[in-house]
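Q:
Just now I want nothing more than another pair of eyes on a protein record. Here is the record:
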Amino acid sequence: MHDAYKMFLGPVHPALEEPIFFDFKIVGEKVIATNLKPGNAHRGIEALGMKRNPIQVLYLSERICGICSVSHASTFSRAVEAAAGIEVPERADYIRTIFCELERLHSHILWAGLLAHEIGFHSVLHYGMKVREDVMDLLEYLSGNRVNYGVYVIGGVRRDIPKEKHEKIRQSIKYYNAAFEKFKDVFLNDKTIRMRTEGVGVLTKNDALKLCAVGPTARGSGLNKDTRQDWSYLAYGDIGVKAQLPSQVTGKINGDVLDRTIVRLLEIKQSAEIIERCIDQMPKGSLVSEPKAAVILSRLKNAEGEGIARTEAPRGELHHYVRLAKKEVVDTWKAKAPTYNNLMAVPVMMKDAQIADIPVIICSIDPCIACLDRVSIIEGNSGKSMNKYDLHELCLRKSEMFGKIERGHQ
């Protein structure tokens, strides 16, 4: 029996797209225990938001994550609308849905390429990047931007999708239906990929339920949960959405990396279908509840109430909570991203895994550390939580130690 030893991964490592620290206990090539330590990417974005009015915070929320920018904008705006009692026109809901599903296409295709990269299958990585360009181009065609689209406004959307743009969208749908078949063939039939994903990083249905896993991570373990299905919002109630499970392809559920891959592949096809149905069923009507931004802002400044919204982001269920209190700025804002849930399942997935499988398992939950990181700093064993003034004072002390600044000149 080999002696156990420690192996560290992160916070900066080629296998990690964002900074997070993993502490593994290893025997030979086998992982026997995993400890994870986030907290390297905290930006204080919620605190920044509570110094701004809701319209300003909307654009800040969109920048929490570049891959889930529409998801955050959608969730925040709907939370504000719930708090202020603002009704969104039906046409705007359909346009919002189209952008949410285009972002899911973008995210899942990017993820498939990154998984192939972690396996070492670089030709599939480059194919994924090539396929992803079509949806990036389409998002730019519809919004003017490839990232952070600026389409959402409080009470509706900024841009319409007129009939003359429908043909371009339909061409992309045909393209992605064909790409789905190619991805399906590669990921399900290639021997190398199956060997690196089948039976790797297993998360049982029971463990997924106990650890509150969400999104493709939960569905890959057989949990029939999808916010679009369980809590219809935007146009999803009209369209009808069913959670995609790996058993639809394989007839069984193992809860491994392969199953989580199958879920995302199925959702590529599903997103294309949802977008097509949105175009076919697009209702007529206005794009915003109130065309004048000044009127909306005045209403928000005088609003009092709480709002919470949930969105099925590409990685899973995303929450935003907002409280308005008749103030110039947002009184309270809290965002909870799906990685907050799914990261808790990683230590279970890592049990008895090989060292070479570590980056593949981490990638399989599609972590977004920028969305995840929240921080509470406790002073020693006192139980006292340190506020921003305490942290600022500590920064000054540390800077003084190294002679960087003098008091009064910070």
Notes: The first helix runs from residue 45 to 49. The longest strand covers residues 304-313.
